[in-house]
Amino acid sequence: MPTAVQWSVTRLSETDSTNRVVLDLARRGAPEGTVVVADHQTAGRGRMGRTWQAPPGSSLLVTVLLRPSLPVEDAHLVSIAAALAAADACAAVGGVRPGLKWPNDLVCERDGTTRKLAGLLGESIVRRTRLDAVALGMGLNVQWPSPLPDELASIATALNHEAGRDVDLEAVLSCWLEELGERYGRLVSRGGVDALLAAYRVACVTLGRDVRVELPEGAFTGRATDVTRAGHLIVETADGRRDVAVGDVVHVRPA
Hints:
Elements: E1 8-12, H1 18-27, E2 34-38, E3 44-45, E4 51-52, E5 59-66, H2 76-94, E6 99-101, E7 105-110, E8 113-127, E9 130-141, H3 150-153, H4 159-163, H5 169-187, H6 192-203, E10 210-215, E11 218-227, E12 233-237, E13 240-244, E14 248-251
Parallel strand pairs: 1-2
Antiparallel strand pairs: 2-5, 3-4, 5-9, 6-7, 7-8, 8-9, 10-11, 10-14, 11-12, 12-13
Helix pairs in contact: 2-5, 2-6, 5-6
């Protein structure tokens, strides 16, 4: 087995964004394995510029610093490894294995509805066309009050709600870091990319189902069939195959 990353965890009661903190540390030369965890974020960020908000102490709000020996175009694979590791941690600690919704959200499907459990955001630092660092952030709903607010009940969930019991946030963090260290070690080893993508295709609940893809220029529907090495979603439509690099994907509920 590849050597796991040696993690060094810093805990903050509150910050604007753990990704912002880790990016600043990375630019100042912080080593791989730096971890920042916050009880509360005032300006947490998700994909496509969205904000991420959670009640203080209810979610695992964490960013890790990695310095992978990967081409710049493969930086997104670090997020895939982290998403798979998060699913492993949820299964090990909470007894619930979420699916992965393209590109790297963790979701639980119940009553025909897909509810978001976690989101991940990887941000890279590139120096002279070389990948210098990746700040990989995750917001995972672990121990939320019940019931969820009306505006969230149909679109979000938390690990304790899915497990039907309390879930220890520190145990989830510890397990995630252990699983991430191992998956990351395999990723940067020979043959690691193909193995990671194979695991992702198995875990990705977007594949094999009808989806609606929402883009700035309009939306289209089709059947999601594959994910490329570049992380693009392949969608077969009535007008032919579409390659989706960035966009909102909605799982179409069966009639």
